[in-house]
Structures are given as structure tokens and as C-alpha cells.
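pipeline: protein-struct stage 2 | run 1193 | DUF1013 domain-containing protein
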Amino acid sequence: MAKPLMAKATAVWLVDNTTISFKQIADFVGLHELEVQGIADGDVAAGVKGFDPIANNQLTQEEIDAAEKNPLHKLKLKFNAAAVGEEKRRGPRYTPLSKRQDRPASILWLVKFHPELSDAQISKLVGTTKPTIQAIRERTHWNIANIQPVDPVALGLTKQSELDAAVQKAAAKKAAEGEVMTDDERRKLVSTEQSLDMDPEPKIPSAIGGLESFTLMGDDDDDEEEDNLVDADSLFNLPKDGGDNEDEQP
């Protein structure tokens, strides 16, 4: 809910000129109830001049009367038709002069590692213009040969949470359009905190590549190998005592 101008001075005026409860005043001006009680006791806002919300077009007398009659009534700001449509215009964020020279490096990093982000999203993240983004995408930027991609979070141009939210939004839009993401694109959707907690994927060393289907010999091969074994006794079949001996003389 919108709060009145000069909240503490308005609270001082309401305490001095009405019988509205401390809680009603606190809810209206956005202060703590004990702080409003301190204003009434003279311990808080000493010397602060009251700010008349009726004269300054923030409250009506009827609203004050209703609050005095009903302790549960919540004060509401007077509707100001002139303030309609005066919301702050949202556009590319302001980038300090000291960091503007880093924007091309951050744009190149976003274009390279997050191609799913639109020009509008990149412009909002790092505070740049669409022609600059397009020039870096097409590598027609005047200084493209000297630009190295750098994470905009590391440069302080955006927050990690904002980058993660933009990537998630771009992924959802891509999925809604029916496009299938690759494994590399899907990994980029994981936040930094999650990726740091994940276990590394097991990889097979290249030296033993191709051995995934290797299996030991079956039982049938073992039986065949046992059949081919030679009996050790047959190799040393010496004649028994009393047998024929070719070397003996008659």
C-alpha cells in the first residue's frame, strides 16, 4: 500500500490533532506502533513539525472521522488522479562510467555462452543498446578483435540471481515454442549454487575406450577348456617293474 509523504511528520500531526489509535496511525504512515507511541510521549520526533495530510491532499476529513469512530478502520490515501500513469519508466539500467568500457566484454560473454537470451534481456542485464549487441553478435563491432568474453557478474554489471532468472525465462520461452535444448544448453540453466554442489559426471578414460561391452568368457568356454587339458600322468607314463625294457640284453 502507498505511504504518505513525510511519514513521521504526518504521524506527529495525527497524534496531536486526532483520536485515531496508535496502530491505525502506524499502519497508515509505515512506522512501528511503539514508535508512534513514542511520538505521543515526546520521546520520538522531538522538534518535528506536524504535516497536515488534509491540507496537503493526502487524507480527507471523512476518512479521519471514520477512523476515529472505528478502531479497526484502516486509513487510505486520497486518490490523486494527476498521479495516474506517472510510474517510473523502466528501461536499460544505468551503468557507471567506470564500468561502461567493460560492457562489450560482458555482451560477448552472454552472446557466446547464453545464445538463448534475447537482445532485450541482454540490454536489461548490462545496460546497453540493441545496436551494440547486434554488432557484437555479427562481429562487426569496431573493436571486436580486442574484446575478450568476461562474465558480467564478475564485472559487477549484474547479479547472479538476475542472470539466472533471465536464463530460466529464456529457456521457458524456448520450450513453449517447441524447440529442443541440447545437453550443453540444459546445463547452463542450473544456477551457480546448484552447479557447485553437483557431483562431476563419471567419464571413461580414453585409454580404455571401447571396453564397455567387454565380458568374461561364459561357462561353456570354461567346460571346453577343461576338456582340452592334458593329464599330467600321461606325460610321465613310466614302465612298471618287470615290464619290457628295450635296453636290457637277453
